[in-house]
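Researcher: Re-running this chain for the archive, since the previous output was lost when a drive failed. Same request as before.
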Amino acid sequence: MHQALQIVDILHLVFQQLASDEDTPWNVLKVNQRALSRASRVCKIFESPALDALRAYMEDIRNLLRLLPPLKNSRHRIQTYARRIHRILGPFDWISSDTYSQLSQRNGNMPLLQNVEAILGDSLEYDILSIIGNRLHELHYCVSVRDEEPDPADWVTLNGCFRALVETSPAVEVIYTQNIPLSCLQVPFEHWHALRRVDLCEACGRLDGAILRALSCLENLEDLALHDCNITTAENHPPCRFAALNKLDLSDSPARLRGLFVAIDTPVLKNISLCFSVEDDDPNLVRNCCRCLDTMVAKCSSSLWKLRIVVWLPHIHAIVPCIDLLPPLFGLRNIRRLSVALQDRMSSNHLEPEDVQRMARAWPHILSLDYDLEASMLHSLPVDALVPFARYCPDLRILKLPVVTSNVPMDLEDYSTFSHKLRVLRTLFSNPQGPARPLALFLDRLFPCLKTSRCRLMINDDDDCDNSLWHDLVVQLRAIQAAKRRASRNASASA
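Model: Regenerated structure tokens:
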């Protein structure tokens, strides 16, 4: 055996390469587990490092429960197993509270899982929290939704469990909850000062000023996600200052989200994701969305670098003029990445060359622009409407627009040659007209660095449409780029 393989620290590093977590594909996880299990039986020095890697992530708590039979050395076996566990995956709702009591008793009424750093999964039983030690850093806790109304006594029990967890696990940094009453979380928010990320999904109750104030007191909070949490704020209160908040992920109605932006102050916020959930047949859809965006821009424009907007239109029967959502965003002078998507075909796109000109002038530092519509009424842009992006957005690398036609300008010499670094150009639909080479020459004139393997150039999604012309466009563009590279090499060789 090589001398290095007799050093325990090196063995730990080697076997950790086969350790799994919740993102590991199931087939890979099983292969890695078998390999680690076999390695633990090769020799004595391999045993502990291999078992540490094997048991660090436990996707099935039954492996621990198998040690419960009253054997002579069961306490030692349970402790040996439990101390290796660092991440544990649910669900736990099939485990009775008596089982957790037995686990605690076998461990001398001390927290059994003392080294657990993350609990992931959903449960209707809260006793799993009673056997967790003080190293817990990440808690994912989801209550399964049942048809019947939850028993209020359950929330009282859960509230007590969270209060106890505040005492036993004071260093929690990440919490994700679903269907948990906000009243159960106020005490943790007031005491878990190390929290960096909070993700609340479909919380029971109202997210009001008291919860916001508790969250704003978390000096290390960098990432906050609120999904369908019934945000209720009062505009006459001083805004809550989130001094370190860098990322904000929100989904709710436009009116509620506007109220939230009024109620908070985020001096270093760089990344916002907005998902507008719209009421059925809301006649004020566009106006409410624009009011929310106006408020967001007024509060966050100086620091914001990345913005993603999704508008869900579940049962809207009127045609939505989606272009109206863009003007509020023209105040984002420092934006780097912008994505706007309407997830419904009952929308219209009346994007004109003048609108593109305004977009390009408004966002001089843009790196990625994704304007994505599932629209039923489309107004195609002429291809020369792309010129402002080449002229005013020197940092742009990814551009996705709904529709660009193929009406190539009559005289290419009327357009400047740019050394733009755009890599990816994607459009969703087009009506092929004319040969591909003139269009390829025009695109190369604007964006000579296009990566054709990553571009989606004028390819129609309709199966009945002949895409051969647009396959030819890619071929022609590659040929033009190859010819330029050869000419450059020849010029260098001649020099």
